[in-house]
Write a structure and sequence with these properties.
Elements: H1 2-14, H2 19-22, E1 26-32, E2 38-40, H3 48-56, E3 63-67, E4 70-74, E5 82-84, E6 91-94, H4 154-160, E7 165-167, E8 171-173, E9 205-208, E10 215-218, E11 221-224, H5 231-237, E12 248-251, E13 261-264, E14 270-275, E15 280-283, E16 292-294, E17 297-300, E18 304-306, E19 312-316, E20 319-325, E21 332-336, E22 346-349, H6 350-353, E23 381-384, H7 411-422, H8 429-441, H9 454-471, H10 474-487, E24 488-491, E25 497-500, E26 507-510, E27 526-527, E28 532-534, E29 537-539, E30 543-545, E31 548-550, E32 571-573, E33 576-578, E34 601-602, E35 612-615, E36 626-630, E37 635-644, E38 650-659, E39 665-672, E40 681-682, E41 692-693, E42 697-699, E43 710-712, E44 715-727, E45 731-742
Antiparallel strand pairs: 1-5, 1-6, 2-4, 3-4, 3-6, 7-31, 8-27, 9-22, 10-11, 12-13, 13-14, 14-15, 14-17, 16-17, 18-19, 19-20, 20-21, 23-24, 25-26, 28-29, 30-31, 32-33, 34-37, 35-36, 36-45, 37-44, 38-41, 38-42, 38-45, 39-40, 39-44, 43-44
Signal peptide: 1-19
GO molecular function: phospholipase A2 activity
Region (Disordered): 108-147
Length: 746
């Protein structure tokens, strides 16, 4: 019953008009009332993510379910086929719950599908599974009992007092599941330099045959470096890496278009020329693109070009030539026809060799010339995505920059290079290439480090450098990104979810089960205003009582605990009911808060010498009755202080009574503060010892600061005096029932 009520509440909150059509279920526990049209027991489809991804290619599928090792597809949404059951092994998901696989432009280079390896990384936390929204229906616990010190600035508290109460939060947008990883960036990558720039005479190089044996200049003639015939001769030549080799550069001929000369650097420029019979000589001037006869030979110089990987091509007119060291290794010749397997002379760049090592990077995934991950959102990391192929080393080949298999032991280095490209967690493009370089120059060449294999060892070192430069170019970057596409995706750190809607972002990493009200339990799931997100659900920001969000510390209807209501007129302070004084002057009877009878003063405005005598007997005493004996033809005054509200007009009234005198006439007058006396008012003539009510006399209000008044909190203390005079014999007089009532208060 509780589960049924939960789903009913969810439907009401999401869309009161058409709840069944609007709500999306993600992981609802229950059973289906309809049959699936697709059932699979494949182990690869048993997870909610895998079953959901399979759904992505099936437009008929509106919902799916997993349980008991099966993946099921349904043609209807969950709302139309779901029946809750807490003991069911099935979890049902609407189509929207499946992980999103965004469509992106293809990466540089073409991806192959090599045989799977066995590195076995198959599980990625993409930020948690999206669940159906839950609106809490449980009251908040009572506040713990504590001692409270109530405010001392009563007026300030009353003026500023408010309390919090709002409706329960609702869900403005249901949102979508997190994206299951981003691919590597495809734009904004830096341009990569070629091994040699033929347009710059400063781009100098050594010339190597396809066997990587360098050419040297001996007696005005170029030839492959000779092999030493003894250990002593090898030692005399010095370390292979230190052998002095001639430098060359490309130069554009004055009349040439599309072809270059190769010039031997030195004090006197010398140009490499092809003879009509395929030989190679040095000459002192460029012939341009037209053959010339020099010293009885037909020669031509402007026939060379070079590709980005440093391989030299030769073309005279429409005829292609292969320029390479001959089979016996004694000379370099030109043979008609295009090179076989790109075996031709190559350039060994001095600038590439002199390049400084890169600084250590702050992130191995987002920096460098071939980052695996975009730099936004921050702190993405690469990992093997579920279902990716395994490690697939395939040795040395053209796809990795090798146009022909070298005659050296680079196979293990190439395999390691492949595996490094496949290593999403640690392998960077630059790092993999550097390791590859170290491997080739180390274990790949060390077996040749003997005097009798001096030339092969030197050639191996040159080949290692050349192939390293090859993989640091565009072909190598393309191979790196091909491996990355087949193996890696980029994920948020710390199990955060990757949220976003556009192929080019913006994306954000967020914890769906934390406090993000715009991604609460799902990407883009938005809570209503004045609510918070708690563990993936929209909740009240402070406390909850029934269907209201409250603060138990200040709400007078739920003070300290739900349904604890403060008495009328009381506020809630720190979870306890509190009766503060009013925040404005209370218009009560000014005499009701005056001093008792004995605190009235006598003669504040004077008395006649024979007039005022003493208080009467107890018959006349007691608050608020005042009585005196008045001597013949005398007068007397009495006074006290009354409370009046600033700016308020009052009505004054009292009772009069006299005894013991026949035919006696008395008068009374009064004054407030420093104002003038009122007009005389006569006592009633009856000598009957009964009270007679006076009329109500208007008393204009006082303001703060008026003369004779004193502030007393929100009220004013105002002096009040009464003047009484009589003619005739001595008699007794009584005044009682003083009332000072604010006008309009009755």
């Amino acid at each position: 019953m509780q589960l049924v009520q939960f789903w009913s509440l969810t439907l009401l909150l999401v869309s009161p008009a058409s709840a069944a059509a609007a709500v999306q279920y993600c992981g609802a526990v229950g059973v289906s009332t309809k049959l699936p049209y697709f059932t699979s027991a494949f182990s690869t489809l048993r997870s909610s993510a895998a079953c959901g991804k399979h759904r992505a290619a099936d437009t008929k599928c509106q919902s799916y379910a997993i349980g008991t090792g099966l993946c099921l597809h349904y043609a209807s949404p969950v709302a139309s086929l779901f029946k809750a059951s807490s003991i069911s092994p099935w979890k049902l998901y609407d189509r929207i719950c499946a992980p999103v696989v965004p469509s992106f432009p293809s990466n540089t280079g073409s991806a192959s599908t090599p045989t799977a390896g066995t590195d076995g990384h198959t599980s990625i936390d993409v930020g948690g599974s999206v669940t159906s929204p839950v609106i809490a229906t449980t009251d908040s616990p009572d506040l713990p009992s504590s001692s409270v010190v109530f405010p001392t600035d009563d007026k300030s508290f009353t003026v500023t007092y408010t309390y919090y109460e709002e409706p329960l939060p609702s869900i403005i947008s249901m949102g979508s599941p997190p994206i299951d990883g981003l691919p590597a960036p495809t734009s904004g990558l830096p341009n990569l330099p070629c091994i040699v720039d033929p347009s710059s005479t400063n781009s100098q190089f050594n010339l190597l045959g396809s066997n990587f044996v360098p050419l040297v200049s001996t007696s005005g003639k170029l030839q492959p470096l000779p092999t030493p015939t003894s250990e002593a001769q090898a030692k005399a030549m010095g370390p292979p890496d230190s052998v002095a080799l001639p430098y060359f550069f490309f130069q554009k001929p004055a009349s040439g278009t599309g072809a270059y000369d190769i010039v031997l650097a030195g004090s006197t420029a010398q140009y490499i020329a092809k003879t009509s019979i395929g030989g190679m000589i040095l000459t002192s001037a460029s012939t341009g693109t037209t053959a010339k006869t020099v010293n009885g030979q037909s020669i031509i110089t402007s026939i060379f070009n070079v590709d980005c990987k440093g391989r030299i091509s030769v073309q005279q007119g429409t005829t292609l030539y292969t320029w390479d060291v001959n089979s016996d290794g004694t000379a370099a010749t030109f043979v008609t026809g295009a090179p076989t397997n790109n075996r031709t002379m190559v350039t060994y760049s001095m600038q590439m060799k002199a390049k400084a090592a890169r600084n250590r990077r702050r992130s191995i995934w987002t920096e460098g010339a071939a980052p695996r991950c975009p730099n936004s959102p921050a702190n993405l990391h690469a990992a093997v995505f579920p279902g990716a192929r395994g490690l697939a080393p395939n040795g040395c080949g053209a796809a990795k920059g090798f146009d022909f298999v070298p005659d050296f032991s680079f196979g293990k280095c190439c395999d390691g290079h492949d595996n490094c490209y496949d290593d999403c967690n640690r392998g960077t493009w630059e790092g993999c290439n550097n390791q590859f370089h170290d491997c080739m120059r180390g274990s790949g060449c060390d077996y040749l480090n003997n005097w009798y294999s001096y030339i092969p060892y030197l050639a191996c070192l040159k080949a290692a450098d050349f192939y390293y430069w090859s993989v640091t170019g565009s072909i190598g970057r393309g191979a790196f990104y091909s491996a990355n596409t087949e193996r890696c995706k980029c994920y948020c750190p710390d199990s955060q979810a990757l949220c976003g809607t556009q192929p080019n972002g913006p994306y954000t990493c967020t914890n769906l089960f934390s406090t993000d009200v715009n991604n609460c339990g799902a990407c883009g799931r938005t809570c209503s205003a004045k609510s918070t997100c708690t563990k993936g659900s929209c909740t009240c920001p402070i406390d909850q009582c029934g269907d209201r969000c409250v603060n138990l510390k200040d709400n007078p209807n739920h003070c300290g605990s739900c349904s604890t209501k403060c008495p009328s007129g009381q506020d809630c302070y720190q979870g306890q009911c509190y009766l503060p004084p009013p925040n404005k002057c209370a218009s009560v009877d000014g005499f009701s808060i005056s001093p008792p009878v004995e605190q009235w003063s006598t003669c504040p405005q004077g008395c006649s010498a024979d007039g005022f005598t003493q208080p009467l007997s107890p018959y006349y005493t007691g608050s608020p009755t005042l009585g005196w004996k008045i001597a013949k033809n005398g007068y007397a005054t009495i006074g006290t202080t009354v409370k009046m509200c600033p700016g308020t007009d009052y009505l004054l009234s009292f009772n009069t009574n006299h005894c013991d005198g026949i035919g006696i006439h008395c008068n009374v007058k009064w004054k407030f503060g420093q104002r003038d006396w009122s007009a005389l008012q006569g006592f009633p003539t009856p000598d009957d010892c009964h009270d007679h009510a006076s009329p109500q006399y208007e008393v204009p209000g006082f303001n703060v600061g008026d003369a004779g008044t004193t502030g007393d909190g929100l009220a004013l203390d105002v002096p009040f005096a009464v003047y009484l005079s009589c003619d005739g014999e001595t008699f007794s007089v009584k005044i009682s029932g003083f009332e000072l009532v604010a006008q309009g208060s009755g």
